[in-house]
Each structure stands twice: as structure tokens, then as C-alpha cells.
Amino acid sequence: MALLKDTEREQLRQLVKACLLEISKLKIELKKSQNETTVSTETESIQIKAVQEEFNNHIIKKDEEITQLHAMLHDKEEEIVELEKIKVNFEAIISRPKKDLTSFQSQIYLLLPYDEDTTENLYKKLRTMGFSELSNENFEHALRNLERKGYFISTPEGDKILWKKIDK
């Protein structure tokens, strides 16, 4: 019987060795699996980062396009404002003269702003609108006639005269 015990012990020892060997194999497979998972996770992480970077670059490009479009829109709006001014000035130039004014006096009245300003500044505004042949003396004479007829008011301020258009 002692022999059986040794046999049982030997079988038990072999069984333990087989189990330990199996455990070692499982540990190796587990490490391989963990490494594969780590590599897989790193690969996925790299892919995710690449997609995020691509997406962020796309957003940056679209933001730049939007900025360019806003700038273009702003430029177009400025052009529209300028064209509206030209339209108003054109209509003032071709409109029929007011009853008691000459065509020239009526154009000056309609083209000048309501803001109070100096003779020199008003003269410059008319010159920029295309009245290049208009002399300063003729302009001042026209303003005096418009004042006499109640279309402008002049107020002396030091050595300058300020003119204000009256709504009629």
C-alpha cells in the first residue's frame, strides 16, 4: 500500500505539474492578449487622434472660409452704401429744380447735407461729387442766394462761416 501511496503522490505531483504548465501557458496567452489589446487600443487611439486632427483642420478651413465670406459681405455692403449715395446724388442732379431756385441752386441744395459745416468743407464735398469746374466764389454766391431764399442759414464763427441746410 505504501507503494500505492507513492503512486498516488506521483500522480498528484504530475497532475500539479500539468496544472502549473497549463497555468503558465494561460499566463503567456493572457500576456499576448493584453499586448494585442494594448496595440489595438493604441492603434485605435492613434486612429481616433488622426480623425480628430483631420476634423479640427476641416473646422479651421471652414472658419477661414467663413471669415473670408464675412469680409466679402462687408465689402459688398460698403459698395451698396456707396452706390446708394451715388443714386441719391444722381437723383438730386437730374431732379426738377425747386420752384424758386435755378437748376444749379437746386442741385447744390439737394446735394449738400443737413449737418452744419464750413464753406470750405461744403465746397470740397461738391468738388468730389463732380463739380470740378465750380469756383469757390461761385459756390459762395450760390450759398448766399440760397440763404436769401430761406434754404440755408449762415452763422459766423471766428474767421469762418458755418452753413446749415433748412428742410423745405
Beta-strand portion reads: 5-15%
Physical arrangement of strands within the biggest beta sheet:
1-3-2
- Roughly what percent helix? over 70%
CATH topology value of the domain at 96-165: Arc Repressor Mutant, subunit A
What is the C-level CATH assignment of the domain at 96-165? Answer: Mainly Alpha
**Number of separate strands:** 3
Separate helix tally: 4
Q: So, CATH architecture of the domain at 96-165?
A: Orthogonal Bundle
User: Class by helix and strand content?
Assistant: mainly alpha
CATH superfamily of the domain at 96-165: Winged helix-like DNA-binding domain superfamily/Winged helix DNA-binding domain
H/E element sequence: HHEHHEE
Main beta sheet strand tally, sense and closure:
3 strands, antiparallel
What is the CA–CA distance across the termini?
137 Å
Unreliable stretches (pLDDT < 50, length at least 5) are none
Based on Cα principal axes, name the global outline.
Answer: rod-shaped
Radius of gyration, CA atoms, in whole angstroms: 47 Å
Summed over residues and divided by their number, the pLDDT gives a mean of 90
Would you write up a description of this structure?
74% of the residues lie in helices and 8% in strands. The chain is built from four helices and three strands; from the N terminus they run H-H-E-H-H-E-E. It has helices spanning 2-94, 103-111, 119-128, 136-148, and strands spanning 117-118, 152-157, 160-165. It has a three-stranded antiparallel beta sheet. Strand 2 and strand 3 form a beta hairpin. The chain is rod-shaped, with a radius of gyration of 47 Å. The mean pLDDT is 90.
